[in-house]
Amino acid sequence: MDKKLKRRKIFYVPGMISLIFIPFMCLYYFYKVDAFKVYGSLEFGIPDKEDFEKYKVEDLRKYKTFSFNEKKSKQKQQLNELRFFTRDLVKRFDSINGAKIHFGSKTDYDTFVSVMDIMVEEKMPVWALFSDNMYAFAHAKPKKKHGFICGTMANTRENTLRIEEENQKKELHVFQVSFFKEQWILFLGYLGIALLNIFALVKFNKNK
Q1: Are strands 126-130 and 97-103 parallel, antiparallel or unpaired?
Q2: Which fold is adopted by the domain 49-137?
Q3: Where are the transmembrane segments (predicted)?
Q4: Does the pLDDT at position 118 exceed 90?
Q5: How many CA atoms lie within 13 A of 142 on its CB side?
Q6: What is the mean pLDDT of residues 98-112?
C-alpha cells in the first residue's frame, strides 16, 4: 500500500498581512477622524436684563462664588467642588444658598460647557446666565399634598422611559446610517481586498 504523502502547507504571505493589518489601519483612521464620536446638544437661553432685575436674581440666595478664569485642565478641582456643592443644594432642597459662577476673560469654551453639563447632570432646577455670571439655586422642598391620587403616575413614568428609550434607539440608528454613508468606501475597499486575497490564495494553491 502506497504511503500517502503529506501535502506541504502553503501560505500566501501578502494576503495574510493584508487581512490582519488593514482592519487595524481602518480603526486607526476612524480614531484619527473622530468617526466614533457622538455629538450632543443642550438647550440654553439667556434672560434679558428686565426679567433678571424684576425677579431680583442677585438677591434671591446667599451665593457661594466659583470663579473660573483659566483653562479647564487647570480648574478640574474647582469644577468638582461646584458639582458637589450643586448636588448638595438639590439634595437638601436648599432655599437659602446658591452658586454664583463667574467666567473671566481667560475662561475657555470647554470650561463653560463643563459648567452647563454639571447643571444638567445634577438636575439643578434653576440656573441662568447674565453678563459674565451664572446663578444657580434649588427650590424649597415641596409640601405634601393630601387627598386622592389617581393611579396613573406609574404609567406616566413608564411611558416617559419608553419614549426616551425609543429616542435613543432612533439617535443610534441615525448615527449608524450617517457613519456608514461617510465611510462606505473604506468598507468596500477592505471587502474587495479580502476577496482578492482569497481568490489569489485559492489560485496559488491550485497551481501548486
Answers
A1: unpaired
A2: Translation Initiation Factor IF3 (3.30.110)
A3: 12-31, 184-202
A4: yes
A5: 4
A6: 92
